Amino acid sequence: MPTDEMVDSRMDNGASWTSWGSTRPELNRTARALLGDALGTLTPQRALAVEDAELAPSRLPTAAREALVAAVGETAVRDDAIARAEHAGGQSYSDILRRRHGDTSEAPDAIVVPGSAAEVAEVLRVCTEHKVAVVPWGGGTSVVGGLTPIAGGCVAVVAVDLGRLDRLLSVDHVSRTATFEPGIRTPAAEAALAAHGLSLGHIPQSYERASLGGYVVTRSSGQASSGRGRIDDMVLGLRMATPRGELVLNAMPGSAAGPDLRRLVLGSEGTLGIVTELTVRVRPVPEATHYEAWVAPSWEAGSRMMRRLAQDGPKPDVLRLSDEDETRFSLAMSGTAGAKKRAMDTWLRLRGIHGGCLIVIGFEGGAADIRHRRRGVRRVLRADHAVPLGSGAGRSWEHNRFSGPYLRDTLLDQGVLAETLETATTWSQLQGLYDDVCAALSASLIRDGRPPLIGCHISHVYPAGASLYFTVLAAAQSGGEIEQWAAAKEAANNAIVAANGTVSHHHAVGTAHRDVVTTDLGGDQLVGVAALRAVKEALDPAGILNPGKLLP
Amino acid sequence: MPTDEMVDSRMDNGASWTSWGSTRPELNRTARALLGDALGTLTPQRALAVEDAELAPSRLPTAAREALVAAVGETAVRDDAIARAEHAGGQSYSDILRRRHGDTSEAPDAIVVPGSAAEVAEVLRVCTEHKVAVVPWGGGTSVVGGLTPIAGGCVAVVAVDLGRLDRLLSVDHVSRTATFEPGIRTPAAEAALAAHGLSLGHIPQSYERASLGGYVVTRSSGQASSGRGRIDDMVLGLRMATPRGELVLNAMPGSAAGPDLRRLVLGSEGTLGIVTELTVRVRPVPEATHYEAWVAPSWEAGSRMMRRLAQDGPKPDVLRLSDEDETRFSLAMSGTAGAKKRAMDTWLRLRGIHGGCLIVIGFEGGAADIRHRRRGVRRVLRADHAVPLGSGAGRSWEHNRFSGPYLRDTLLDQGVLAETLETATTWSQLQGLYDDVCAALSASLIRDGRPPLIGCHISHVYPAGASLYFTVLAAAQSGGEIEQWAAAKEAANNAIVAANGTVSHHHAVGTAHRDVVTTDLGGDQLVGVAALRAVKEALDPAGILNPGKLLP
């Protein structure tokens, strides 16, 4: 039986109640000036401490609680205020704002922390019997409302925190696969693999907090997706506990034995079961890495370069293009100012670039392979008049690759609305999608003639298309912050669907995209939705698994 | 309204009733000697002409027939003996044998040849109303019983021949995608694309006969899968008619909007609906192609080279390794005999190879890219003591890449049991799977101390594992041919499942693997099977779509 402290430590994902990290990066003078100019007067906001939050009493019936204790032990069923408050939603702007305001309406009635796959199965059995809804909880980093404790037709909601299922179970060196429990966070997974000379190489911005299981059920894609692929491509086998029994899909490199059921689990967002084991593709730790930055003369030219590299290669492992506004903002944030900024502007101006769009390129692998690919990439970029900024700027991006969410903490304190959203489409439709989403966000968030700051980047490229990732900054509307963003998000959602974008390229559906996901799931005749509903009813007849998520 | 001749020409896939092609390649003296030595006395077999086959009366009720005629027109509903007999099963050894014996028990009651997606939908509506089972029919090349007209609970079975849905609908040059109707055969698809300077590059052995739609619903994989990927990776969007309505999945490069429903259609084998439109990834016609052959000193060493190239690259587009028996047999078939064979043996022996395993490697792309990859591949092969045979031997493989099924016609005439089967697993389990399948086939087919000839090759490699493709030759047991192979197939199936192989790497499930597919579909608790059954019931409540296939 684990002690309270042991369970606590395994639930701890490093984030605090209302912030991503324990440190707040300070904005430099350039960034402050840029924000002030663009957004006008800001009203600083403060966050309530978790101890000051008030909580509704737990609705978990005593009989259900006792059965859960019998399943996982007393210390692994938590309904103290702190544990419940800390599981009140994920990391979307709205989730964080609610908690900053001391609003704990999204707290589950209890947290259950199973210690084995068998305990997960038993928890599902108990919850089915007692009609208690289950929100599977990995790293707690959902930005689409995937952790919102919706009861559906159930009497209460428990979060099933997978923090104790955090082991590397086995490594197959010959086949280059590794089998993990689902609750392991990426740094721990990489550390365990590094002891074998191996690496997973899945590096989303949530790297420090998110869990492997979470990546899988939300169809995550990392910053090195050009080289490593989406998590979809990395999952070779898995086990999933469902109220109906266990789904076991052995690691298989390729098969034509019916539909690939791994792909039904990928993106299922906890609505079909809880993944208890994952076998993923791993690689030797790369011999070398190299990052470099370039500037494209325009978004259009930069997009064309991305497309050429994605379609004809050579493919870097990391490939990103920021639009002009994001480039300007990134340079300000990174402290590229004063003499340094003037020198860079001169360097670019002499080469015909005014403003320009930042390109970041990363390579991993053997030294000779990297040299070969760099040469090829350089040819493509130079042919379209991109200008090199060198490897220093590339390393600076690498150094700051996880800084976004920390920066958001700072911005929220200062009264800035700061949120991101993302989509993807084919290359021929990408510019239209870009224009329409920018226009929709601007129209929704403009105040007193002052439009929001919108930056965008391409960070995942495919032969047929690419993702678009938008960052939005505006003056938060004090007292109406949540409604302000909800309206903007709705406008963006509608623009995305109308422009043939997917409602999410790598954040998932959750509640944020649930009501606009119909096109992605097979169209207006709801055939795809009917298929997914049928699977859910077959596997989860009592409807306990993550109600209110994914399905419209 | 199309004429009879128009419909006939669109149903014609080039095969005859009992043979793959209209020509029979002759066996050379070496091959005949090798076969005679290995298999002993053979009893030549003859094939009945389609005109001599007797057919049971069609069970299609008049009202259903009239409704189908109303849906697609009189000329597009066929129940004449020839059309029915020519749709009596696919291209498995058993299917062909049955037809050679004049057994038409597997003929559908009628053939319906819709001319549009709307007509396909209407056919499904009519068949649902009249409780008529539907076998979707693409190129007619299933080797796993996917075309067997099982009525299930229905009153009759119609084959829905998609031969009239054979157009290239549109090309998106920027995104490098093309949208096709499902019934188009690969040569026609490539010809249509070539007019745009594009190519699909999906080249399975059934290339000349199979349809694009068939590839998709059976999860096909082509000979250039190392470079181009499986058909799974090529499908970006699709439309599927189901009794419940139309499933529309727009072309999307990547998404996290719920489970990827394309992957539910891939491998669905006509049990969920009929695909009416496909958007696939295409590429420019390669600037150059290059094939070359090598000999590995042993199967073990050759497998290791395959693994190295799959895991660390550089990856050729085609990558194949034959075991010693297949190498011996291939060389005999290709007429490498007499002085030529002696010279080759000497060349190899001087380099330490006795027997040896043939490696075929192919490259497609730009000349510089091919040069670079060839250099890298050469290093890997030489490091493990493979010996080059040059590009002549590679071109000879390319020239004969579609010859297998023609050769089978010849062998069947001579009284040889000739069939293939295939599987895949992870690299660490590959040798065990190979050994166990060989042993199972040998034990089942040995007669009077004479084992069958079993050849095997690796032809699809992945970082985590590879496929194994077995060719089996034995003296056919006159009068009991079908039972003879059924017993061997059952033994192989069981060996595959026991050795953690998939029951099919690229042939699909059909009826041949239906009763051993449980492990691939999620294991003994039947959770995955329940999920698929639930989808089927939701989309096809009357159970008309390809009954008796795929699901155990």
Gist?
Chain A contains 20 helices and 18 strands.
Descriptive overview:
2 copies of one chain form a homodimer. By secondary structure, chain A is of the alpha+beta class. Among the domains of chain A are: 4-28 and 49-161, Uridine Diphospho-n-acetylenolpyruvylglucosamine Reductase, domain 2, CATH 3.30.43; 173-284, 2-Layer Sandwich (Uridine Diphospho-n-acetylenolpyruvylglucosamine Reductase, domain 3), CATH 3.30.465; 288-401, Alpha-Beta Plaits (2-Layer Sandwich), CATH 3.30.70. The first copy, chain A, has 20 helices and 18 strands. In chain A, strands 15-12-14-13-17-18-16 form a 7-stranded antiparallel sheet, sandwiched between helices. In chain A, strands 5-6-10-8-9 form a 5-stranded antiparallel sheet. In chain A, a hairpin with a 4-residue loop joins strand 5 and strand 6. In chain A, helix 3 runs antiparallel to helix 6 and helix 18 packs antiparallel against helix 19 (481-498). The first copy, chain A, is globular and about 75 Å long. At the A-B interface, strand 8, strand 9, helix 11, strand 16 and helix 18 of A face strand 8, strand 9, helix 11, strand 16 and helix 18 of B.
